[in-house]
Design goal:
By secondary structure, this protein is an alpha/beta fold. It has a domain of 152 residues: 3-Layer(aba) Sandwich (Rossmann fold). It is 47% helix and 15% strand. The protein has nine helices and eight strands. The strands form two sheets. The chain has a five-stranded parallel sheet, with helices on both faces. A three-stranded antiparallel sheet has the order 6-5-7. A hairpin with a 5-residue loop joins strand 5 and strand 6. The N and C termini lie close together (10 Å).
């Protein structure tokens, strides 16, 4: 199964991708994780990306796509994968199509997680993250068992500096301008499936697993 999860910031892409990845035994590929790994391991692509980032420049698409190509060749991705946070632009989507064609791979579905803006703002401003292991909680809908303490590792929960209304507004503007056009791009390819993720926050995994199973290519 090969999937892309689309959605605005706070739509639940990471939560759903992690859950479906575990349920289906396929790789969860997050560009954020890819960048961190390449930077930490000081790979050729990581060093190249760090040079752009240190200069305050955007990392070119060919560097990001190169990281994705390397990731797809790892053992766990052979059974399938879910892209979370990639592609972000039409240019990246076109580059991904070309790369998958070279690798003789095809996407099964692109899942658009639909959530109203008012809910996005609520989720982001009430989100908490474990300072130690990165586990995500929500003080209203997915609280930890002990307030302020991670259930998994006992680390301190914090509110990230960019989890505020002003930053989300700016991120949404970028999303509407650069990423939302991918909805129509993949609809034209017959790959798009919409999933109402309102108030579910990853708890309704069975429904989305059922959706992607029905979308799987024969």
């Amino acid at each position: 199964m090969r999937l892309i999860f689309l959605g605005a910031p706070g739509a639940g892409k990471g939560t759903m991708a992690s859950a479906v990845s575990a349920a289906e035994g396929i790789a969860h590929i997050s560009t954020g994780d890819l960048f961190r790994k390449h930077l930490t391991d000081k790979t050729e692509l990581g060093i190249l990306a760090e040079g752009y980032m240190s200069a305050g420049k955007l990392v070119p698409d060919d560097v990001t796509v190169g990281m994705v190509r390397v990731r797809l060749q790892e053992e766990d991705a052979k059974a399938g994968f879910i892209f979370d946070g990639f592609p972000r632009t039409l240019a990246q989507a076109e580059a991904l199509d070309a790369m998958l064609a070279e690798l003789d791979l095809k996407l099964d579905a692109v899942i658009d997680l639909a959530v109203p803006e008012t809910e996005l703002f609520r989720r982001i401003t009430t989100r908490r993250v474990c300072r130690q292991c990165g586990q995500i909680y929500n003080v209203e809908t997915m609280p930890s068992k002990v307030a302020g303490i991670c259930d998994l590792c006992g680390g301190e929960l914090m509110q990230r500096a960019d989890d505020n209304a002003e930053t989300l507004r700016a991120r949404l503007d970028v999303y509407y301008d650069q990423t939302e056009p991918l909805i129509e791009y993949y609809r034209k390819q017959g790959l798009l499936q919409s999933f109402d993720n309102m108030n579910k926050e990853g708890s309704d995994v069975d429904q989305i697993v059922d959706l992607v199973q029905k979308s799987k290519r024969v």
